[in-house]
Amino acid sequence: MPGNIQTIELRGLPALRLSTASGANAALSLYGGQVLSWQPRPGDERIYLSEAVQVDGRSALRGGVPVCFPQFGEQGALPRHGFARTAMWSVIEQRTGDDFALATLQLVDSPETRSLWPHPFTLELTVALEGERLDLELEVINSGHAPIAFNAALHTYLRVAEVEECRLEGLYGFNYQDALKGGEVRRESGDALIIDDAVDRIYHDVTRPLLLRESARALGINHDGFPDVVVWNPWEDGNARIADMKAGDFRRMLCVEGAAAHRRIELGAGESWFGRQTLVTL
To answer: Catalytic residues (predicted)?
Structure first.
């Protein structure tokens, strides 16, 4: 039995529901080009989406997998994380087959984007659902006649049962920039990252797959094309300052994201770049 793709409305937003015969499903919002849900098995939600999310057509959606482009965080003059996560994307491809479903969304430059960032571009986000695996690929195409430089990330909010019981493995030995220590660069010395306080780090040039362990389950995380890994959790005090996040929700999420945040990606006219993130239940 083949996979299936349906056009739906989710939280009042136009979206696609991807599903497979084995019971896996994912939801992809056209607003922001953003994955909002992934269940590798029925009822086994692996993506955090805030119940207090603001859906007003202007604000970024708290949770899911926001696309950060062409700026990461506040590392520039653009709105935080750029404009892609608050833009409407269009569907350019849908494919299904024996137990898989794939959809590609596209965002191209417009008068609104050029008023913020005066460059022609095309973004394509491909989401593929197969078995207990979710693949996301972001492609950036320089459709203009001059070089461009940008940052990008797939800002993945992973849903966890209890963040204090998680172990993120695979980062040992890599340098990271600690935003909570004034941008100080340190070296990861532990065999696993344990979240017991606020964390906001950019790990540089990560070359190994990661493994997120919880008490009863594990998730493999692999990045291709993205040189960096960002790990973020606001902890209790930070959670309290986030209006669109319910009290205590910091315990239910951990951001582990593929990113090009430390250095900008440079593309000549007509060139393209891609970054891929793969999540696999183990």
So the answer is: 155, 257
Between CA 159 and CA 101 the distance in angstroms is: 22
User: Which residue is listed with tokens 């090009």?
Assistant: 260
Q: Over the range 119-144, which residues count as b (16 or more CB within 10 Å of their CB) and which as e? A: bbbebbbbbbbbebbbbbbbbbbbeb
Tokens of 20: 């497979």
Per domain, the residue ranges of the chain are 4-281
8 A C-beta contact, residue 23 and residue 44: no
pLDDT in tens, 58-105: 899 999 999 999 999 999 999 999 999 999 999 999 999 989 999 999
Give the pLDDT band (50/70/90) at residue 213.
Answer: very high
H-run or E-run covering 134: strand 133-141
CATH 2.70.98.10, applies to 4-281: yes
**Spatial CA neighbour of 16 closest among 87, 93, 123:** 93
CA 239, 243, 249, 253 torsion-angle sign? negative
Catalytic residues: 155, 257
